[in-house]
Design goal:
The chain is of the alpha/beta class. It has two domains: 38 residues, no CATH class; 212 residues, von Willebrand factor, type A domain (Rossmann fold), CATH 3.40.50.410. It has nine helices and ten strands. Strands 5-4-3-6-7-10 form a six-stranded mixed sheet, with helices on both faces. It has a two-stranded antiparallel sheet with strand order 1-2. The longest helix is centred in the C-terminal third of the chain and has 25 residues. It is elongated and about 80 Å long.
Length: 293
């Protein structure tokens, strides 16, 4: 789960984007949308682990023997909530293309961006219609090892009920912020009503849709018995080129429909196939989609 120093340096240059949610009252590294163009001194705040020492006021430290950070313009933090689908359907793929491992790397990258920006980070693990474990809320880069340990402890091993999980997450009082859901969206009842409830609580949302290559284009042929990984439902099928083409067309239609629905709801949507390296997804695709800048 640990990133290379090169990747971490690149992630530290990014910030998560929230265009409508008001930032919190606690001063942090994030620049508020309400700031002016001035770079003049504005205020001090207490030093927190992980702050840039170049902004420490050594004169104040010499007089008071307490560390303070200089604020040069109005800065505020953002509440960031990363939600990970832990259903059995996420336990699919081999090596670097394993969906759940891929999702955990994405969550680690997003968490790294949030913590290095001084944002308030929480991570929720969703299984069987519940939020079964949580990390945070935490702030500051010192929390990064704890985040990695938390993510490494997770295992995809239960049924999917995204709507119920998202509704459960939404009923707990939380500061309005940016919610990032990472899922393959293989949920019989969908995800829409759960995300709408989070939006109704004042959150912004981004949906990262993760699929394996063989879920986009299965290399199957002949008479087969398919078994649902979560329900164990069995289905006998005869697969030829025509059926494979029909399947691929319907998958693309599903992705396009999901993207259109997200656009209507004001949700940023990113579809990823795990054959694409996860660091490229973090550093390139998430920037292209407007989740980070």
């Amino acid at each position: 789960m640990l990133f290379t120093e090169s990747t971490l340096r690149k992630l530290k240059q990014l910030t998560l984007v929230a265009s409508r949610v008001r930032s919190g009252a606690i001063k942090g590294e994030r620049r508020s949308s309400r700031r002016g163009s001035s770079v003049e001194f504005a205020d001090y705040r207490n030093y927190s682990a992980g702050d840039d020492l170049r902004r420490l006021d050594w004169n104040i430290y010499a007089r008071l023997e307490k560390p303070f950070i200089k604020l040069l313009e109005e800065e505020e933090d953002l509440a960031v909530y990363v939600l990970i689908d832990g259903s059995r359907s996420m336990d699919w793929g081999e090596g670097d293309q394993h969906k759940f491992n891929y999702a955990r790397h994405l969550a680690a990258g997003i968490g790294s961006i949030a913590l290095s920006s001084g944002d308030l980070l929480s991570v929720g693990f969703l299984q069987s219609g519940h939020v079964v474990s949580e990390f945070g809320p935490s702030r500051g880069q010192y929390a990064l090892p704890r985040l990695f340990r938390f993510l490494e402890s997770l295992e995809a091993s239960a049924d999917t009920d995204l709507n119920a999980s998202l509704r459960e997450y939404s009923v707990v009082p939380r500061r309005a912020g940016l919610v990032v859901l990472i899922s393959d969206l293989f949920a019989a009842d969908g995800y829409e009503s759960g995300l709408r409830q989070l939006l109704g609580r004042g959150h912004e949302a981004a949906l990262i849709h993760v699929l394996a290559p063989d879920e986009i284009d299965p290399q199957l042929a002949g008479d087969l018995q398919l078994v649902d990984i979560e329900t164990n439902f069995e289905q006998d099928v005869s697969i030829d080129g025509g059926l494979r083409n029909l399947y691929k067309a319907r998958v693309q239609a599903w992705i396009q429909s999901t993207q259109a629905d997200c656009r209507k709801q004001g949700i940023r949507y990113l579809d990823l196939v795990t054959s694409q390296p996860w660091d490229q997804a973090l550093l390139l695709e998430m920037r292209r989609t407007g989740i980070v800048k």
